[in-house]
Write a structure and sequence with these properties.
Structural class of chain A: mainly alpha
Distance between the termini of chain A: 7 Å
Low-confidence stretches of chain A: none
CATH topology of chain B: 2-enoyl-CoA Hydratase, Chain A, domain 1
CATH class of chain A: Mainly Alpha
Oligomer: heterodimer
Order of helices and strands of chain A: HHHH
Number of strands of chain A: 0
Largest sheet of chain B: 6 strands, mixed
CATH architecture of chain B: Alpha-Beta Complex
Mean pLDDT of chain B: 93
Number of domains of chain A: 1
Order of helices and strands of chain B: EEEHEEEHHEEHEEHHEHEHHH
CATH topology of chain A: Non-ribosomal Peptide Synthetase Peptidyl Carrier Protein, Chain A
Shape of chain A: globular
Shape of chain B: globular
CATH class of chain B: Alpha Beta
Radius of gyration of chain A: 11 Å
CATH superfamily of chain A: ACP-like
Strand order of the largest sheet of chain B: 1-2-4-7-9-12
CATH architecture of chain A: Orthogonal Bundle
CATH superfamily of chain B: 2-enoyl-CoA Hydratase, Chain A, domain 1
Largest interface: A-B, 20 and 16 residues
Number of strands of chain B: 12
Mean pLDDT of chain A: 92
Radius of gyration of chain B: 17 Å
Structural class of chain B: alpha/beta
Number of domains of chain B: 1
Number of helices of chain A: 4
Largest sheet of chain A: none
Helix content of chain B: 40-55%
Strand content of chain B: 15-25%
């Protein structure tokens, strides 16, 4: 699994969980909060993406992450 | 005087009860629950025609407090539900739940004990109990199906998913209105105004009649949920699930 594939899945779930955003405007150096996500939206995007990527990371390990790119890196560490 | 709950009575018989504990995110801490129940009883004494139950713009009610859940696991606290449900159900006037913000677990269950329900497209609503390792409480096992329909209730309870209001809007639930957040309070006010034009004596009679079914359902729920809690809070996995649930992500 490549980082690009992971980012694609995360972006897909961002689009599904947030209203009125365009895929092209998502910058992976930003936080989901910058696109209007509230804390429960973020949890939903993260859990949906992990299910789809078949990875399981404890939330405590995700608590320090600030950007979409950092999330993708963390997922990559745990991906097969 | 504490500001966790704010009561405001209007001249036309509409009373507002606002859950306002920003620090505690409107979760059921012991202080919050005590004040909520006291406030609900106080509104009863005011003899209003209708009550608008509201929360903070981003959080209507967060449900259970982590400390209480841990105490339940350790057996420090008896497995008992709060008496919020009974207090709400016994109010002699209709309650409009104006849920601008998220309503989670027991916070979402509060809607079931209201008469008219409004939810926001931007907020999330979930019966998350199973995500924390224990079985649903607050009457969800008999009453959630009344609110959202039996199959959506099953999905909500088994998955613990927090549904976005905009997502629920596409499903045929019994939530009266799912609107953009800024339209919730004006709509709640409008409905309250319509009720306030009615004869208070007839309002109270109607409320009494419409509550009978819910009261029976709540008795049924208590019988099974108390037992289910006694079992499921004692599972060794439940503690870890609760710890994990309360970690916040940025």
């Amino acid at each position: 699994m490549t980082k690009e594939e992971i980012i694609k899945v995360i972006k897909k779930n961002i689009l599904e969980n947030l209203e009125e955003i365009d895929e092209n405007e998502i910058d992976i150096n930003k936080s989901m909060k910058d696109y209007g996500a509230n804390s429960l939206d973020i949890i939903e995007v993260v859990s949906c993406s992990m299910r789809e990527l078949k990875i399981k990371i404890p939330r405590t390990e995700l608590a320090e992450i600030n950007t979409i790119g950092q999330l993708a890196d963390k997922f990559l560490e745990h991906a097969e | 005087m504490s500001e966790k709950i704010i009561i405001q009575m209007e001249e036309n018989g509409i009373v507002h009860l606002k859950m306002n504990d920003a620090e505690g995110k409107n979760t059921f801490t012991a202080d919050f629950v005590a004040e909520l129940i006291r406030s609900l009883e106080k509104t009863s004494d005011m003899k209003p025609k209708v009550l608008i139950l509201q929360g903070l713009p981003d959080i209507f009610c967060g449900g259970a407090d982590k400390k209480d859940l841990m105490d339940l696991c350790e057996g420090k606290l008896a497995v008992k539900d709060f008496i919020i449900q009974e207090t709400l159900l016994n109010l002699p006037f209709p309650v409009i739940a104006a849920m601008e913000g998220h309503a989670i677990g027991g916070g979402f269950a509060m809607a079931m004990y209201s008469d008219i329900i409004l939810a926001a497209r931007e907020s999330r609503y979930g019966a998350v109990f199973m995500q924390l390792g224990f079985t649903p409480g607050m009457g969800c096992t008999t009453m959630l199906s009344e609110l959202v329909g039996p199959y959506i209730a099953s999905e909500m309870m088994f998955s613990g998913k927090r549904f976005k209001g905009s997502e629920l809007a596409h499903k045929s639930t019994n939530i009266n209105y799912i609107l953009p957040r800024e339209e919730i309070m004006p709509k709640a006010e409008d409905i309250a105004l319509q009720i306030s034009e009615k004869n208070i004596k007839s309002i109270y009679i109607l409320k009494h009649a419409l509550s009978v079914k819910k009261k029976k359902l709540l008795i049924d729920a208590r019988l099974q949920e108390d037992l289910m809690h006694r079992i499921s809070f004692a599972f060794p996995e439940t503690r870890a699930a609760i710890e994990e649930f309360y970690v916040e992500l940025d």
